[in-house]
Amino acid sequence: MRIIDTHAHLNDERLYSSVSDIVSNMESDGLSKIINVGYCQQSSETSVKLANTYKSIYCSVGIHPHDASNAHTSNYDYFSSVATNPKLVAIGEIGLDYYYNHSERAVQKRVFVEQLELASALKLPVIIHLRDAFEDMLKLLKTNLHYLNNGLVLHCFSGDSDMVHQFLNIYPVYFSVGGAITFKNNLDKKDVLSHIPIDSLLLETDCPYMTPVPFRGTTNYPKYINFVASKLQEWFPERNIISETNANALRLFTKLNN
Ligand SMILES: [Zn+2]
């Protein structure tokens, strides 16, 4: 069975010039579909364009917390205008990043909630970026539960098992994992993963970032998702990782069936 990469950035300049090669090799690379994720106005537009060009490429649109201070209602107007595109599966990536703090925290929070509201109005799930902002994220999700009715995924999830349970206590969130699970020091990651329900796990690359071992330190590509799936299969031999995570992706991102 071929894998769905639920979070890639083929719109990044490091990958953009290779998109046609990446797409034409998807079958032999063991990939069935790729969700190309937007993070600002321009990358969102590119994301939509790629989804319109290639059958197996899907897209999301959103303003990343890094770019929150540049967010404008015209961005939201654009997102609304493309929301009915059959290949547009989600709003994202949106969220909070208190590690880099490229935008002020108050602005990040406001722009995040504005996009939760937009996603709810557009009946789309959300793809969430979260770094070093666990408490505030939990609070914002709790107070905005009414906007979460189309589902959400915490992408590149790096929390501990306690965080898994705290999120699940407020909402049936999905957790997406990628190359980081192959890094050294990964024994506690296996433990964290054992706390994520089988029907809540997704696979992603976040390419060109988060390259898995043995290619860590070089550019990441969608095909390297195989190393992520293999690591999980090695840790949980009784499960069928690819079919579980594909089924989860199709349940959360219903337009992936288009
Ligand atoms: Zn990303």
Give your account of this protein's structure.
An eight-stranded parallel sheet has the order 1-2-3-4-5-6-7-8. It is built from ten helices and eight strands. It has helices spanning 13-16, 19-24, 41-53, 73-82, 105-121, 134-143, 161-170, 187-195, 225-235, 241-252, and strands at 3-8, 31-37, 57-61, 88-97, 126-131, 152-154, 174-177, 201-203. It has a single domain (3-257), classed as Metal-dependent hydrolases (TIM Barrel, Alpha-Beta Barrel), CATH 3.20.20.
Q: In the residues, how many domains can be counted?
A: 1
The average pLDDT is 97
Sketch the major β-sheet.
8 strands, parallel
Give the CATH class.
Alpha Beta
Which fold does the CATH topology refer to? TIM Barrel
Percent in helix: 25-40%
Under the CATH scheme, the architecture is Alpha-Beta Barrel
Q: Helices, strands, pairings?
A:
Layout lengths: L2 E6 L4 H4 L2 H6 L6 E7 L3 H13 L3 E5 L11 H10 L5 E10 L7 H17 L4 E6 L2 H10 L8 E3 L6 H10 L3 E4 L9 H9 L5 E3 L21 H11 L5 H12 L6
Parallel strand pairs: 1-2, 2-3, 3-4, 4-5, 5-6, 6-7, 7-8
Characteristics:
alpha/beta, eight-stranded parallel β-sheet, globular, TIM Barrel, binds zinc ion, 258 residues, 10 helices
What's a quick, concise take on this entry?
With about 260 residues, the protein is an alpha/beta fold. The chain is built from 10 helices and 8 strands. The chain has one domain (about 5-255): Metal-dependent hydrolases (TIM Barrel).
